[in-house]
Design a protein that fits this description.
Length: 269
């Protein structure tokens, strides 16, 4: 074989190897962090697999981008460390877009606008946020509800506040009477209280906040635009509305963020 043919063959092999490497990279599974006990948003089923509204969303995004997902369960506070360090490509966990978070993280457009709920024992005598005065309350550490409560400590006048690493521990303390009220995403509370073992608990009050849930990524992630475009497409073709109704039991409002394509947020407004 001539030296020229040898050179051309070598270049062809190198090109093929490079192309194969790029194709393999394109197919790499997205590494997703998630708080594993947050139904109906995300939770592990009896087989140990993740399910939930946001699980379906992230899996659909991955499919539209030509890849798959690998979802790891993390403590809620660890989600922020995981994105900041680049350990994960994205995080799902009913995360609210806030100006403070946008300083260190990036978010896709929102797909849900929520409210907080006040969970109590039935007949606890609490029916509004004003009734939290003098009460022992709790929420999840570093969450939007916790920040909301702490910012209004003087206004609400609650007696004591407990911060929890898990929803399960918070609701255990609520059931046992260690706290008088648990404040969390209202959808999560209603879902939890529908379970037979929680039938002594209820959502006693709703707190409209307008907080918006989205997928969180490392700051200025290369995946951000692709994720956002996929969410817009899901809103436009009805996929997002279908998933919303599947997990939340009702159709989204026609003018809601669930069905309205939006740009990548630069502020919480």
């Amino acid at each position: 074989m001539s030296s020229r043919r040898t050179l051309l063959t070598g270049l062809a092999v190198a090109a093929l190897t490079t192309f194969s490497g790029v194709a393999a990279m394109a197919q790499d599974a997205l590494k997703i962090g998630s708080y594993p006990a947050n139904p109906p948003w995300e939770f592990k089923n009896e087989a140990g697999d993740f399910e939930g509204f946001e699980v379906d969303i992230i899996n659909e995004i991955a499919a539209r981008l030509g890849t798959t997902t690998e979802i790891d369960g993390l403590d809620f506070r660890a989600l922020f460390v995981a994105t900041a360090s680049g350990r994960v490509d994205a995080v799902i966990s009913s995360l609210t877009i806030t100006d403070e978070r946008l300083e260190a993280q990036s978010f896709t457009q929102p797909y849900f606008s929520g409210a907080l709920g006040v969970g109590t024992k039935k007949d606890a005598g609490i029916s509004s946020i004003e009734d939290l005065k003098g009460k022992r309350i709790g929420s999840i550490a570093t969450s939007f509800p916790e920040n909301w409560l702490k910012e209004r400590e003087d206004e609400l006048g609650y007696k004591a506040y407990s911060s929890y690493d898990t929803t399960a521990n918070m609701l255990t303390d609520l059931r046992s009477g260690r706290i008088d009220a648990a404040v969390n995403d209202i959808v999560s509370l209603r879902y939890a209280f529908a379970q037979p073992q929680m039938n002594m608990l209820e959502v006693a009050a709703e707190i409209p906040t307008g907080d918006k849930f989205a997928i969180m990524l490392p700051k200025d992630s290369a995946h951000l635009q692709g994720f956002n475009d996929a969410i817009s497409a899901m809103k436009e073709d009805g996929t997002m509305a279908t998933l919303y109704e599947k997990w939340l039991g009702v159709a989204p409002a026609a003018d809601s963020v669930t069905v309205t394509p939006l740009p990548i947020p630069t502020s919480a407004d």
